[in-house]
Amino acid sequence: MKNCIVGLAGNPNVGKTTVFNQLTGMHQHVGNWPGKTVERAEGHFDYNDVRFDVVDLPGNYALSAHSIEEIVSRDFIIDGDSDVIVNVVDAANLERNLYLTVQMMELGANLVMALNMNDFAQKKGHIIDIKAMSELLGFPVIEISAKDKTGFDELLSTVKKQASKPKDTSVKLAYGDELKEHVEEIRVLIEKDNSLNDVSSFWTAVKLLENDEIVLEKVKNSSSGNKIMDKVNAVSKHLQDIYGEVPEEVIANARYAYIDGLIKETVQKPAVEKPTLTDKIDNIVTNRILGFPIFLVIMYILFQVVVNVATPFMDLIDGGFAWLGDSILAITGESILGSFLVDGIIGGVGGVLVFLPQIVLMFLAISILEDSGYLARAAFVMDKIMHKFVGLHGKAFIPLILGFGCGVPAVMATRTMEHESDRLLSMLLVPFMSCTARLPVYALFISAFFSAYQGEMLFAIYLLGIIVAIIVAAILKRTMFKGLSSPFVMELPTYKVPSLKGVLLHTWEKSKGFIRKAGTIILAASIIIWVLSSVPFGVEYGSQESAIGQIGTAIAPIFAPLGFGEWQPAVALIFGIVAKEVVVGTFSSLFGVAEEGAGIEGAVHELFTPLSAFSFMVFVLLYIPCFAALGTIKSETNGWKWPLTMAAVTLVTAYVVSLIVYWGGLALGFT
Ligand SMILES: Nc1nc2c(ncn2[C@@H]2O[C@H](COP(=O)(O)OP(=O)(O)OP(=O)(O)O)[C@@H](O)[C@H]2O)c(=O)[nH]1
Ligand SMILES: [Mg+2]
């Protein structure tokens, strides 16, 4: 069977991953905000005797060397042995999309265009002459609908054909005589040097004029480097003299001129564009005055729904585990085995699984926010505040909201930030966003102490996370990360009704991760906790004399000023560093789930007052992120420096804020 390697490239949020998933049957992350795919994903399938290997690339607006995804995509096009690049394009935003297309043409990539989102183009009243466009571009253009898979047959047979006779797509580019002539002068010199000819010489020439760091470096190190650079400098100066602009701008203008011409010839637009539904919704949702209150109301409703809908399901699971524990004890009696199964496994793992309904709902809510397009608006609304207080772009808010789900993908999502220091700073803020793993802790304490205000308390704690993140960021921006963040246009995708399948799939994929975690890390931690609670032999299980009790007693004084100086919270916090759910797992292992009466809630009442419980929740909210998040930060930053910095920053912040909460609360007369 023949092989055909296909790369999917295009602007962010145009449907590349939707195409990828439809083709390969895989479930990569789809959502309605730009920048979801940050790492290339690969998959394959067979079609008409050809094995297609498909690579889903991160979305880009350009192929410069500004951010990691741009480099990932461009390296793939340059080095990847791809046969065809399928350029997925949003038909409703052709101008912007074609800017990338043109840059791939500069590379001479063997292109096929998949024109997607035609439903939106039609709604806007745009009529596209596909045949004319294909002729003018010099490569095939196929109309598709990624969502319902229409046009895929034609797309695949065209890709197959194109693979067998590759085309140099740069031939149809027209950049005006002046520019063309000078690029040609540089190009000729590049052609003569074999070490530079692994990529289109035309592209190399353009990139040299654009001052592209990576290409400059490569050319300067080649044998004809000096000669080429002399020419480049002469041409740059000449262009600047004629146009009064730096060569980068001259080239960008030439690209836009080409695109303008192309669109005039092939697209009919209504004389006056009528406001779309998205425009109408945005007038309200991103309104300067209403935007922020609307954001708060949406978050508030979200937490109310998560809490209230989940409760009956949680009670059901709780009842199930209690029954299971009692049944096991009935068989084993008070034995080591019984204690291991009931206190250790059911207490540790079951005690955490009880919170599955809340976690699923939280993921569901975040998926809906993502798929509808509201997530990007939330970032837009927060932009003003973020800029003013934090000196960060609102775009940094997207990873932060994703952090409500799980810190790991949230840290990855910071890759779309252009500047390294902005990226690091947003990465440092992610752990302050309360992830779903911390939900069980709040759920336990809120139902034990604040049952009358469950939704409100949850909302307050999440909001506190955001506020603390903003304050910490403001401090760090003035100390560790000086300098203004780069301005960036925030793209607001069209609102879409989230697809049921998409949202459910999304939620399931993430919830699966939680269940897997319960069966692995949380299980392992539970076993360790059980062992430490049972040794040395002869001590009462989970008593202060047990190993775990002694560890806790040694550390507890550190937390005494925060209001919770008992040994149990101390060990719960220590083990919680592995995974935050384990904080609750520790309590339920120590206090048992099967016992009649109030169980953990009763035990927690003996250890905490409402104020110290709140202080404890705040500490859990803010202290060291879990191992998985720290590991991701390590791999994203290539070293231990940042994860360790983060552990230190979060620990200090947690301590200080809890201290303020506890003593402030006492001063205000709370107990
Ligand atoms: N209306 C409509 N929506 C579509 C179509 N194709 C994809 N979508 C939606 O567009 C959004 C973006 O799709 P993705 O596949 O995640 O886009 P992407 O290009 O991979 O985005 P990044 O990974 O962020 O670069 C999702 O909400 C899809 O459901 C289409 O043909 N019509
Ligand atoms: Mg994608």
UniProtKB/TrEMBL annotation:
GO MF, one term, reads: ferrous iron transmembrane transporter activity
Q: Where does Mg(2+) bind?
A: 21, 24-25
Q: Where does GTP 2 bind?
A: 35-39
One GO cellular component term noted in the UniProt record for this chain: plasma membrane
Q: Which residues bind GTP 4?
A: 116-119
Ligand binding (GTP 1):
10-17
Q: Which residues form the FeoB-type G domain?
A: 3-165
Alphabetical UniProt keywords: Cell inner membrane, Cell membrane, GTP-binding, Ion transport, Iron, Iron transport, Magnesium, Membrane, Metal-binding, Nucleotide-binding, Transmembrane, Transmembrane helix, Transport
The residues that the entry says bind GTP 3 are 56-59
Q: What is this protein called?
A: Ferrous iron transport protein B
Q: What is the lineage of its organism?
A: Archaea, Methanobacteriati, Methanobacteriota, Methanomada group, Methanobacteria
